[in-house]
Amino acid sequence: MSTEAASRPNDSMTLITEMMERPLDPGYTAAAERRRNSGLPASTSPRSPTLVIAAILIGALLGASALALRAPTTATGKIKRDLVARIEDRRAHADAQTHLIDTLRNQINTAQAAALTAQSQTGLATELSRLELEAGTVPVTGPGVVLTVDDAPTQGAPVAPDANPRTVTGPDQGKVIAKDLQMIVNGLWDAGAEAISINGHRLTSRAAIRSAGEAILVDYRPLTRPYLITAIGDPGSLGVEFADNSGGSYLQSLKSNYQIRGDIQNLTSVVVPGEPTLSLQKALPVETAVTSPAATGPGATARVTPAKTTSATATRTTETSP
Amino acid sequence: MSQDTEGNPQPSASAWKRLMLAARPRATKANALAALLAVLLGFAVATQVRQNQSLGLESLRQSDLVNILDNTTLESSRLDQNARDLQATRDQLVSGSTSGAAAVRAAQERLDALGILAGTARAHGPGIRMTIADPGGKVTAPVLLDAIQELRDAGAEAIEVNNIRIVASSHFGLGASGIEIDGSSVSPPYTLAAIGDPATMSSAMEIPGGLSENVRGLGATISIAQAPDLTVGALHPLSGPRYARPVSPSAPATP
Amino acid sequence: MIPALGLLVGLAAGLFLHPAVPLALQPYLPIAVIAALDAVFGGFRAVLDGIFNDKVFVVSFLSNVVVAAFIVFLGDQLGVGSQLSTGVVVVLGIRIFSNVASIRRHVFRA
Questions:
Q1: Is C95 helix (H, G, I), strand (E, B) or coil?
Q2: What total of structural domains would you count in chain C?
Q3: Which CATH code for domain B123-232?
Q4: Which residues of B touch A229 (CB under 8 A)?
Q5: Is residue C103 a part of any domain in this protein?
Q6: Does C33 sit within 8 Å of A20, measured CB to CB?
Q7: Residue B22: C-alpha distances to residues A70, A127, B15, B35 (Å)
Q8: Which of A76, A112, A165 is closest, CB to CB, to B103?
Q9: I want to staple B115 with a disulfide (CB 3.0 to 4.6 A). Which of A52, B121, B187, C97 is the partner?
Q10: Mind listing the pLDDT tens digit for each residue in B159-186?
Q11: End-to-end CA distance of chain A
Q12: Which candidate from A31, A56, A69 shows the least CB-CB separation from C6?
């Protein structure tokens, strides 16, 4: 660099300007100058042994470091990602099957209703829809409440998912656990709720609320926060009776002791979805309903025992239902 | 004067006008390529953002995830079986290959199943019987509530406690003379009968931290017996909801 | 051509022979790799500019690697290891980008 030139304003930035304007080692230009001056071609032969040896060494360096530096994705991290992917896959499949079952049920019901009418079995059809309503396989709507329950707002930094569980501080008291939801739902039933769903999953006689570690499952399906409990019942008394009974006081103590959030909202119309997949695997009826040909009313079904029952307690009597 | 990318001075058209000119769509290859690259970039950004908002599942521990995976797999296969059966029934009905009598029979079977699920019909099948003797009066309503939840989770299909049928709306509370189920008072010893897979249900009761440990910790005793066939004979009165009515068929079934 | 073949041979040797890198040198391996890449791209550009010199190439490569590793080592001793390492990576990265841009101009005339 010429030292006689007036200093430029950005003289102090030589590092950066050097880096950006002259990325090529100035050694090359200097050597090329010298070679041109002594009559040799500017560039050396690409076949010189020095170069080949250097190339081999560089290749070896790159290869060895590629192996040595391969960042080991923590085994747990990889396993967890794998698990989550499989869970998501299964859930998507389960959701698809649920929709399919819902569609099939509707189609079966329509076809059955038509067949039953054709056979003058409208009594049976009415019974069917009554029990579907009672068992919870169809969605229902009506006045009721929506109870929103959520964990206490966290103040500390979130724990890294790969963190060693042993070094993490004790159980987070502000977390909603399955028992909390069980007690709240128990209180709602006590207060006269007729249908309840949590985050869109209907509570039936087979649905369990339980914890899998830190997640809450309803009917084997994991829930995400916040937890919305929808209940249909008498608009005037449902919320009030809930607040007064054991469920309401349990929720109140959760709120005051652990800052768990719980808000109840009265609404004139809520929808509680049905659970179309509700079915039996092991249980069999003791008596089965057989309708006499002329009967059309709901109360006129005669109950007989199936002829081929293997149950030791089956009785061979015919009774008319009251 | 303003400059273009090479630093050559341009006539000072307003920057906005130049932007408008540049933004006009032209059907050139370069434009199409640029558009494609922009689409890819947008897609990549969206994917990354979505990736970042974790499902909430990633924050769970590995053992929890394994648990959830097992449950979801079981549920999946249960649903598959269910769907297959329903498909067979539907095909039969729709194709009209079933006689009217067969359709009636299918309806009756569904009626029977629903009756058991709603608690209005008696049921029999394999299951377990549990007896909780509580001389010290230490067993509380939440303990029984927990028992029912654990039984349901283990696949129980019909449950009765001290001759009271347990359905979806069954609730446990504390009354003047002890535990009340659905408003009726019950006193120890508490006898439960549940229809389902006997092995699954009894092992669910015995898991560490489960019902048996809980009951014994309170000073009560619990005995569980598997049975190849037992009857749940208690019935739940068919109340009929007063406020809940079916959603009209044209409305979407589930949210 | 021959040097390129040499590079491939070396790469294959490194990958398949699994040479054990001494544990003490392992922390400096990443920086050494980046410095090596910088020298290699500089060499490419020199070839395309027509002023390649094998001696300069070897010397620049060795000095890059040694100086980079030394700077990181010094930083570790002074307690600013990660910051110095970041600085070295930034400088080498910029040089690599500039050289690659020049190579690109030669090759694609774009």
A1: helix
A2: 1
A3: 3.30.70.1880
A4: none
A5: yes
A6: no
A7: 45, 71, 11, 13
A8: A112
A9: B121
A10: 999 999 999 999 999 988 889 999 899 9
A11: 112
A12: A56
> Which of A238, A148, A147 has its CA nearest to residue A194?
A238
A115–B contact, CB cutoff 8 A: yes
Does the residue C75 lie in any domain? Answer: yes
Q: What is the pLDDT of residue B59?
A: 65
Contact B82 A279 (CB under 8 A): yes
Query: A284: buried, middle or exposed (CB in 10 Å: 19+, 13-18, 0-12)?
Result: buried
Task: Summarize pLDDT for B207-239 with one digit per residue, the tens.
Answer: 888 899 999 999 999 999 999 999 999 999 987
Residues of A in contact with B198 (CB under 8 A): none
CB B55 within 8 A of CB A88: yes
Residue given tokens 């040097």 in the structure block: C3
Domain residues for the domain of C99 are 23-108
Q: What is the pLDDT of residues C76-95, one digit of tens each?
A: 888 887 888 888 899 889 98
pLDDT at A316 over 70: no
Contact B231, A311 (CB under 8 A): yes
Residues in chain A within 8 Å Cβ distance of B152 = 205-208
Cis peptide before B126 (omega within 30 of 0): no
Closest CA in chain A for residue B181: A190
What gap in Å lies between CA A129 and CA A284, rounded to an integer? 20
Q: Does residue B248 contact residue A141 with C-beta atoms inside 8 Å?
A: no
Tell me the helices (H) and strands (E) count for chain B, helix number first.
7, 9
- A and B touching (3 or more beta-carbon pairs closer than 8 Å): yes
Buried b (16+ CB within 10 A) or exposed e, B204-228: bbeeeebbbebbeebebebebeeee
Which residues in chain A (139-178) have CB-CB distances under 8 A to chain B? 139-144, 158-159, 161, 165, 178
Q: In this structure, what DSSP letter does residue A157 have?
A: P
Q: Give the SS3 label for residue A48.
A: coil
Domains of chain B by residue range: 123-232
Instruction: Please tell me the pTM assigned to this model.
Output: 0.60
Q: Which chains touch C (3 or more CB pairs under 8 A)?
A: A
Are the Cβ atoms of B64 and A102 closer than 8 angstroms?
no
Residues of chain C contacting A31 with CB distance shorter than 8 Å = 51, 53, 55-56
In the block, residue with structure tokens 């991290």: A77
Q: What span, in angstroms and rounded, lies between the C-alpha atoms of C5 and A28? A: 23
**Sign of the alpha-carbon torsion through A59, A65, A68, A71:** negative
Give which of A35, A2, A291 is closest to B111, Cα–Cα: A291
3-state SS track over B75-143: HHHHHHHHHHHHHHHHHHHHHCCCCHHHHHHHHHHHHHHHHHHHCCCCEEEEEEEEEEECCCCCCCHHH
Q: Which residues of C21-47 are buried (b: 16+ CB within 10 A; e: fewer)?
A: beeeeeebbbbbbbbbbbbbbbbbbbb
Residue C5 lies in a domain: no
Q: Rounded CA gap, A298 and C78, in Å?
A: 90
